[in-house]
UniProtKB/TrEMBL annotation:
<dbReference type="InterPro" id="IPR016181">
    <property type="entry name" value="Acyl_CoA_acyltransferase"/>
</dbReference>
<protein>
    <recommendedName>
        <fullName>N-terminal methionine N(alpha)-acetyltransferase NatE</fullName>
        <ecNumber>2.3.1.258</ecNumber>
    </recommendedName>
</protein>
<dbReference type="GO" id="GO:0031415">
    <property type="term" value="C:NatA complex"/>
</dbReference>
<keyword id="KW-0963">Cytoplasm</keyword>
<dbReference type="InterPro" id="IPR051556">
    <property type="entry name" value="N-term/lysine_N-AcTrnsfr"/>
</dbReference>
<dbReference type="Pfam" id="PF00583">
    <property type="entry name" value="Acetyltransf_1"/>
</dbReference>
<dbReference type="GO" id="GO:0120518">
    <property type="term" value="F:protein N-terminal-methionine acetyltransferase activity"/>
</dbReference>
<dbReference type="InterPro" id="IPR000182">
    <property type="entry name" value="GNAT_dom"/>
</dbReference>
<keyword id="KW-0808">Transferase</keyword>
<keyword id="KW-0012">Acyltransferase</keyword>
<dbReference type="GO" id="GO:0007064">
    <property type="term" value="P:mitotic sister chromatid cohesion"/>
</dbReference>
Length: 191
């Protein structure tokens, strides 16, 4: 018996209809012509996933350079339900993470998920994504309308750009920690 094969392939004008069909089946939100036009321009940031030569999944991302940072936004990443839990989603996330690591100039990777999509949340947590914030009424036409922003940071935060934690900074950090605890208590009282 031959082993099951998962492969990724480019999105091209010849197969873009397969991507549209797949996204329509997998996501409750529909994407417009501009979305698909842009997807044809992003190279490695959009891929179809094949399971034994059948299209079963796709990932579409874009670069977000707003807010003084360079971030990769996963617009869609999905797999047809009969082919889930076979490693297709992981192959797509790993492709995206390898791409940003190789590039070396991204601050983070992020995406939105409906707050009740626990399967996707568990899936992304496996790859080091965390719930960064929750946006109320993010979706206009679906329920629940609230979305979590899942984010994986690619840079380690260095206070003041100074890497080693000197003794002076350490004691300052301890003081800040103490102060913030104090503030928390204060806030608790107000809540
Ligand atoms: C989320 C999604 C892409 C995962 O794809 P997948 O091909 O099933 O993922 P994998 O097989 O690579 O799963 C890897 C691991 O993630 C975790 N995981 C995946 N789906 C999960 C679920 N429904 N519940 C809990 N954990 C899950 C598991 O640990 C899994 O490993 P295991 O099967 O060995 O236990 C898929 O469920 C999907 O297409 N969902 C609909 C679209 C969507 O919600 N996309 C997210 C927003 S962009």
């Amino acid at each position: 018996m031959t082993r099951s094969r998962i492969e990724l392939g480019d999105v091209t004008p010849h197969n873009i209809k397969q991507l549209k069909k797949l996204n329509t089946v997998v996501f409750p939100v529909s994407y417009n012509e501009k979305f698909y036009k842009d997807v044809l321009e992003v190279g490695e940031l959009a891929k179809l996933a094949y399971y034994n030569d059948i299209v079963v999944g796709a990932v579409c991302c874009r670069v977000d350079t707003s807010e003084n940072s360079r971030r990769l936004y996963i617009m869609t990443l999905g797999c047809l339900s009969p082919y889930r839990r076979l490693g297709v989603g992981s192959t797509m996330v790993e492709h995206v993470l390898n791409h940003v690591r190789k590039d070396g100039h991204y601050d983070n990777v992020y995406l939105h998920v409906q707050v009740n999509n626990t399967g996707a949340i568990d899936f992304y947590k496996k790859f080091g994504f965390e719930i960064h914030e929750t946006k109320k009424h993010y979706y206009k036409r679906i329920e629940p309308a609230d979305a979590h922003v899942l984010q994986k940071n690619l840079r380690t935060a260095i206070p003041n750009g100074i890497a080693p934690c000197t003794q002076i900074e350490k004691s300052q950090n301890e003081k800040n920690h103490h102060d913030s605890k104090h503030n928390d208590k204060h806030n608790d009282k107000r809540a």
